[in-house]
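User: Can you predict the 3D structure for this chain?
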Amino acid sequence: MSKAPPHQNADPLGLGKKLGRFIHPARNRWILVAYAFLFLLVARPLFAADLSGTWEIAYRTEPGRQTITLEIVHGGSRVSGRGIMRGDSGASVVQVEVRTGTARDGDFRFLVVAEGGSGFRGQEFSGNWFRDEMSGQTDGVFGSWIFTGTRYRLGR
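Assistant: Here is the predicted structure, written as structure tokens:
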């Protein structure tokens, strides 16, 4: 078996020498650390980029605790969805719809209104989310309240 000619094994672009200074363990380690840090800064919003899923949102009002289970669909910067709102006693259950929603870079705003024209006029939610947690303020006919929410994942 014959050996390959030397020109086929050569590094035509000289990348071995150029990259060698970054790969060498004792040199320029701070550059690798800086690149890793920049990657994490840029990648963080990407990990929080999707609000889609089933969310359980809760807040306390004068009449009592309110919970909303929403199935949110997030596409581009638009948010929509449907869900169920329950009062503290569990006796009042209202089908709701998410309207005029936007979400971007971990911040969101959407309006929750009753389906079918019941007396519920709407509740606006605004805040931020990261991974499976959200929090913010809700404003509506019953006043302004602080809320928290958790996204359900399969296997939870």
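Residues 6-47 form one domain. The longest strand covers residues 93-104.
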